[in-house]
Specification:
Elements lengths: L1 E2 L7 E3 L2 E4 L3 H12 L4 E4 L16 E2 L8 H12 L5 H20 L14 E2 L9 E2 L6 H14 L4 E4 L2 E8 L5 E8 L7 E6 L2 E4 L10 E2 L8 H8 L4 E2 L4 E8 L7 E2 L6 H4 L3 E3 L19 H15 L4 E4 L6 H4 L1 H9 L9 E10 L2 E3 L11 E3 L4 E2 L12 H18 L13 E2 L6 H11 L6 H14 L9 H22 L21 E7 L5 E7 L2
Parallel strand pairs: 1-23, 2-11, 3-4, 3-12, 4-8, 12-21, 13-16, 20-22
Antiparallel strand pairs: 5-7, 6-7, 9-10, 10-11, 14-20, 14-24, 15-19, 17-18, 18-19, 24-25
């Protein structure tokens, strides 16, 4: 099954195609070059417009005095609520410090303390200060800058900007051997073409645009995960959508990307208050305002239900030098008419991160030969039911390097693609009703009735097909496929765990200490199974 598109008008080749220019894609590309493999780096907008640059909080790594990978592991497992793969977590926390040191060697500059050491802060779910940050609250921008500088200096990395990866190309053996691309704008390539390679790495980030309000940029329509699904790859844990608890609330009419208020603000002393000025997280969790994100998001949702208000308050007025410590957040608040040094900030949960994705092994290999996945598009098992704060940039660094090492050891010759005649395409008009349905029925809180109502809406929207291939239609089709996968898995998991909250099954259940795996076959049929946690 593939998306309807025009006939390819051009062809290009490379040893490896990397789709995505965030921390995962850039790290993978640079490490592939260290093995002297040619790389085609494809990015949907400009090369610096991915989710990475929006990351405010930082990178978690056991680099501080007295901290250890084992302590980082314990915090990661606690946040993951029983669904983490131990081996994946071990890899993440043990290889993390060296991955961060390599990033620093590539030119990334992190904030320093008064003594000249790297300054470490704390975020929700962490029991120690282990978050490196840059520019106060602009860590992602600094990480992106450093990696981009290295990539752009490397003649062995060809960059194609403004290119949407439409579908994977597969050979007669079933191996992924390239992708179809649609390139827009300036340059010698235009329209639909074929990029052939010996392996494809998907690092396209998240799928936040499935929901009405998200912290993700407009390009985050889950294209890579949808591409992998149509290629027949397994996806896992897609029901676990992390809602960031503190996103600047502006107006119910605001849709799309919303300004994030990093939990590092709470790490520096800000507190959450309800409309009665009560510090409502006290007594709800031992870490109170710095509880894991799912705990805080659920309690904020509860407070909003009780008060009938569309937000709660974040009081950061006691933070010294707020504008200096959090310049990006300060500017965002001021732009929206709020001075956080003298006023409380209205906040509410919004879609932030997909803990699940395409199921991969410890080297990023999907269930389809030749197709590797890295970063938020992947389900390594390291995040379980709820990603620990600031483990996302770390995952891209660690697993990007592992993918490159694995490909360097085992990269078969180029194979030629075979044609797939089965196509699908939906009308872009489905996007807004899809987003509304997902936010209302498959958001922070779900139930069987809300999920079935959402599924009914999705089934109705699937009838609105299109015969006009264009970016908006491809994105709409991808969002619909991913929304369907999320709702199917959320219906299957009849418990509350991590960032999956079922109001009709409010308790944690031992029998659900399993991973829900889904697959979409070439005839457009869904298959589901469960997998024991390793």
């Amino acid at each position: 099954m593939k998306l309807l598109s025009g006939a390819p008008g051009w062809t290009t080749t490379a040893d490896v195609i990397v789709i995505g220019s965030g921390v995962a894609g850039l790290t993978t590309a640079l490490n592939l070059r260290s093995h002297n493999l040619s790389v085609l780096l494809v990015t949907k907008a400009r090369i610096d417009e991915g989710s990475t640059k929006w990351a405010q909080g930082g990178i978690a790594a056991a680099l501080g005095p007295g901290d250890t990978p084992d302590q980082h592991k314990k915090d990661t497992l606690a946040a993951g609520a029983g669904l983490c793969d131990l081996a994946a977590v071990d890899v993440l926390v043990s290889e993390g410090p060296e991955a961060v040191r390599k990033l620093i060697a590539r030119g990334a500059v992190f904030d320093k303390s008064e003594t000249g050491e790297i300054a470490l802060t704390r975020e929700g779910g962490h029991l120690r200060n282990r978050i490196l940050h840059a520019g106060g609250d602009a860590t992602g921008a600094e990480v992106s800058r450093a990696l981009l500088a290295a990539v752009q200096e490397d003649a062995g990395i060809e960059i194609i900007e403004h290119a949407l990866a439409i579908d994977a190309l597969k050979s007669a053996t079933g191996r992924v051997c390239g992708v179809t691309l649609h390139v827009i704008g300036q340059g010698s390539l235009d329209g639909v073409g074929r990029a052939l390679s010996r392996a494809v790495v998907v690092a396209t980030g998240g799928l936040g645009q499935v929901y009405s309000q998200t912290t993700n940029p407009a390009v985050s329509t889950g294209d890579g995960v949808a591409l992998a699904l149509r290629a027949g790859a397994d996806v896992a844990d897609v029901e676990f959508i992390q809602f960031h608890p503190t996103v600047l609330w502006r107006d119910l009419a605001n849709r799309g990307q919303q300004p994030l208020i990093s939990e590092a603000v709470r790490g520096e002393g800000a507190i959450l208050l309800n409309h009665k000025d009560e510090q409502f997280m006290v007594g709800k969790h031992p870490q109170a305002d710095l509880a894991p994100r799912d705990v805080v998001a659920k309690e904020i949702f509860n407070q909003m239900r009780i008060s009938g208000q569309p937000h709660v308050w974040l009081d950061a007025r006691k933070i010294k030098d707020f504008a200096k410590r959090f310049p990006t957040i300060y500017a965002s608040c001021v732009a929206n008419g709020i001075d956080p040094t003298v006023e409380k900030i209205p906040v509410a949960p919004a879609s932030h991160y997909a803990s699940g994705g395409v199921r991969v092994d410890l080297n990023g290999q999907s269930s389809i030969a030749g197709l590797y996945i890295c970063g938020e598009s992947a389900c390594t098992g390291a995040h379980g039911a709820n990603r620990l704060a600031s483990n996302s940039l770390l995952e891209g660094l660690v697993f990007g390097a592992r993918i490159a090492d694995a490909l360097a050891k085992d990269l078969p010759p180029q194979e030629q693609p075979v044609e797939d005649s089965k196509t699908t395409l939906l009308d872009p008009k489905i996007v807004i009703p899809l987003q509304i349905a997902m936010s209302e029925g498959a958001g922070v809180m779900r139930s069987e009735s809300s999920l079935r109502k959402t599924m009914q809406t999705l089934q109705e929207l699937s009838k609105l097909t299109s015969n006009q291939p264009r970016i908006e239609a491809w994105e709409a089709s991808n969002l619909h496929l991913l929304a369907t996968a999320i709702v199917r898995s959320a219906l299957e998991r009849t418990e509350t765990r991590g960032s999956h909250w079922r109001s009709d099954f409010p308790d944690f259940s031992d029998k659900w200490q399993v991973r829900v795996i889904e697959k979409f076959d070439t005839d457009g049929n869904w298959h589901k199974r469960v997998e024991q946690i390793k």
